[in-house]
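To whoever is on call:

I kicked off a structure prediction for a single chain this morning and the downstream step that reads the tokens threw a length-mismatch warning. I double-checked the sequence; it's 240 residues and nothing unusual in it as far as I can see. Pasting both halves so you can look.
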Amino acid sequence: MFYQLLKYVLLGPLLRLMFRPRVAGLEHVPEEGAAIVAGNHLSFADHFLMPAILHRRITFLAKAEYFTGPGVRGRLTAAFFRSAGQIPVDRSGREAGQAAIREGLGVLGKGELLGIYPEGTRSHDGRLYKGKVGVAAMALRAGVPVIPCAMIGTFEAQPPGQKFPSPRRIRIRFGEPLDFSRHAGLADEKAVLRAVTDEIMTAVLALSGQEYVDRYASEVKAEEDQRRKESRRAGVRRGN
């Protein structure tokens, strides 16, 4: 009920007014049955824009931090995500990844639409990063198609550190469903999971036109953060 209220009354009309989305390939999203929509992730606004334009309800695996923030803002954010039917995912460690897969399979097992960002985190610089294999594991275990999706313009509308998005036209592109039935029964094969994930990311890349980095976004961001810390420490030492 609250999901429909957000989509059609409270949030959806506002998002359409702010971003005037141009949508291509919406016919590739099945009208019924389980499927995964796998997209790039450039902005916090991505969580709301895709559901606003889809005809079907979509459930996202959202990072657990959205449900555990401190203060009034944190409680409001958590309440919003829960009311919208989003599922918290702890991203720390291998066991956490398996828990996320179980949650996703639960959604697919009900014949619903599951949204996932294979990069595992928002891009901090607008580039497309290597996908994690959870999306492949879910697609193969559930035997469902994967619809690649590209958000274009949301990074510029709300880059990292900007609390509220700026109005601008964005584009959303959906590609043809990817069928991985040829890999049925191979969901535990690491090489197969990697190949399927790379095929998904290649399809997303073709839609988005981003620069691709064959590394995990979290690793690159951690390295850059470390370099900035070392640079600040060096500056302090020189100042002394």
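Update from on-call: the warning came from a stale cache, not from the record. Cleared it. Sanity check on the structure: The CA atoms of residues 82 and 105 lie 18 Å apart.
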